[in-house]
């Protein structure tokens, strides 16, 4: 198969979808790899490193899209990329369709095959291609939250861990999944007083067992959230419903319960956000203030630490990408249930229910679509 690796052009997105080591694996399996010039530069990988691994370097993004049968990316295509996408072209990347109606319609119109990292799912309901970036984003949420609590950045002027004789900051983490767990661990390591909420009692029992003594577990419900945010200095939104919009656990009206200078970091913003007032921002302009509450809503947080993020992402995506290249997307999805759940759009049809429901569009059964595609061959 012909694989294309374009340079990411989303604002301040410094990651790249494949390392030179990944290129070498594809070459070993007999595939051709085309990498856009300087695609890996911001992640610490030179064009020479890719060429030495067996890739051919192409000068423009249009060249890469034009030649490739499968495009491997990090973030969803942006508007300037839409015209470059060809019918039947396989795109393997983070899409988060449920948070972008325009992207959804664009991919339907281009009749692309869109396999989304974030909905590839194992039998135990875990999301193997979301985990590494969730780990990065969860840890970063505390790093960024601690920074924006500083007074020059409009925060309360509180040191996260306090000092002897002075109480540490209070951190509320909404969601006990990968992001929330990593955020709570980091905040606890800083010395903060941490509360983590989840709707699963079993998950809270587990977190209570593994977390340090300065982390308290509380059942997530509207009453408890209202009680907690009145005393909290930093709120981390870490709620995910695979392939669908996150629920709004904190509404606009609830901001008045918080004290001025409170910081909210909504890690779920790329899936619609779990805090109503959060809208996606960029690393260039990461924050805004509503009702004296500092909102940090960068949709691609791991892009700020691209070396770590690129290595972590490639470690997770490469085995799946190789299956797609070795077998073709149809056979790979039939034989691998995890990849099948990653299919969101196939040749003009939505095959993931959460996406169809988000925008009121027709849903097509993935099994039927796959069987029809195989019969056409």
Task: Provide an overview of this structure.
The protein is an alpha/beta fold and 377 residues long. The protein folds into 2 domains: 2-126 and 306-376, Rossmann fold (3-Layer(aba) Sandwich), CATH 3.40.50; 131-304, Rossmann fold, CATH 3.40.50.720. Helix content is 36%, strand content 16%. The protein has 13 helices and 15 strands. The chain has helices at residues 20-28, 47-53, 61-67, 101-110, 131-148, 178-190, 201-210, 222-229, 306-327, 329-335, 337-342, 353-359, 366-376; strands spanning 2-5, 32-36, 56-58, 70-72, 90-93, 113-116, 170-174, 193-198, 215-219, 234-237, 263-266, 287-290, 293-296, 343-346, 349-350. It has an 8-stranded mixed beta sheet with strand order 3-2-1-4-5-6-14-15, with helices on both faces. The protein has a 7-stranded mixed beta sheet with strand order 9-8-7-10-11-13-12, with helices on both faces.
Question: Which secondary structure elements does this structure contain, and how are they paired or packed?
Answer:
Blueprint: E1 2-5, H1 20-28, E2 32-36, H2 47-53, E3 56-58, H3 61-67, E4 70-72, E5 90-93, H4 101-110, E6 113-116, H5 131-148, E7 170-174, H6 178-190, E8 193-198, H7 201-210, E9 215-219, H8 222-229, E10 234-237, E11 263-266, E12 287-290, E13 293-296, H9 306-327, H10 329-335, H11 337-342, E14 343-346, E15 349-350, H12 353-359, H13 366-376
Parallel strand pairs: 1-2, 1-4, 2-3, 4-5, 5-6, 7-8, 7-10, 8-9, 10-11, 11-13
Antiparallel strand pairs: 6-14, 12-13, 14-15
């Amino acid at each position: 198969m012909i694989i294309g690796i374009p340079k990411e052009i989303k604002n301040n997105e410094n990651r790249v979808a494949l390392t030179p080591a990944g290129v070498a694996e594809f070459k070993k399996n007999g595939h051709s790899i085309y990498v856009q010039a300087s695609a890996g530069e911001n992640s610490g990988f030179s064009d020479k490193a890719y060429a030495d691994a067996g890739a051919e370097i192409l000068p423009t993004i249009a060249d890469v899209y034009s030649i490739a049968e499968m495009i491997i990316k990090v973030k969803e295509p942006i508007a300037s990329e839409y015209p470059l996408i060809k019918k039947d072209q396989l795109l393997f990347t983070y899409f988060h369709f449920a948070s972008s109606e325009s992207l959804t319609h664009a991919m339907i119109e281009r009749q692309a095959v869109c396999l989304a990292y974030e909905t590839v799912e194992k039998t135990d309901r875990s999301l193997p291609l979301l985990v590494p970036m969730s780990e990065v984003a969860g840890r970063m949420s505390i790093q960024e939250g601690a920074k924006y609590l500083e007074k020059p950045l409009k925060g309360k002027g509180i040191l996260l861990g306090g000092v002897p004789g002075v109480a540490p900051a209070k951190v509320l983490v909404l969601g006990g999944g990968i992001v929330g767990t990593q955020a709570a661990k980091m905040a606890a390591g800083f010395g903060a007083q941490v509360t983590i909420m989840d709707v699963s009692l079993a998950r809270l029992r587990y977190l209570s067992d593994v977390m340090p003594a300065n982390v308290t577990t509380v059942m997530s419900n509207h009453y408890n959230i209202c009680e907690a945010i009145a005393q909290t200095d930093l709120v981390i939104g870490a709620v995910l419903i695979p392939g669908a919009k996150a629920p709004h656990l904190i509404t606009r009206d609830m901001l008045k319960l918080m004290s001025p200078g409170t910081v909210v970091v909504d890690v779920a913003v790329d899936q619609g956000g779990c805090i109503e007032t959060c809208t996606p921002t960029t690393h260039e302009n990461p924050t805004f203030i509503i009702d004296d509450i500092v909102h940090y809503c960068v949709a691609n947080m791991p892009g700020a630490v691209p070396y770590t993020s690129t290595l972590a992402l490639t470690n997770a995506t490469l085995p799946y990408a190789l299956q797609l290249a070795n077998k073709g997307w149809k056979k790979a999805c039939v034989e691998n249930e995890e990849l099948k759940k990653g299919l969101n759009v196939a040749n003009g049809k939505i095959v993931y229910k959460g996406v169809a429901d988000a925008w009121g569009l027709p849903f097509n059964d993935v099994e039927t679509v796959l069987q029809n595609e195989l019969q056409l061959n």
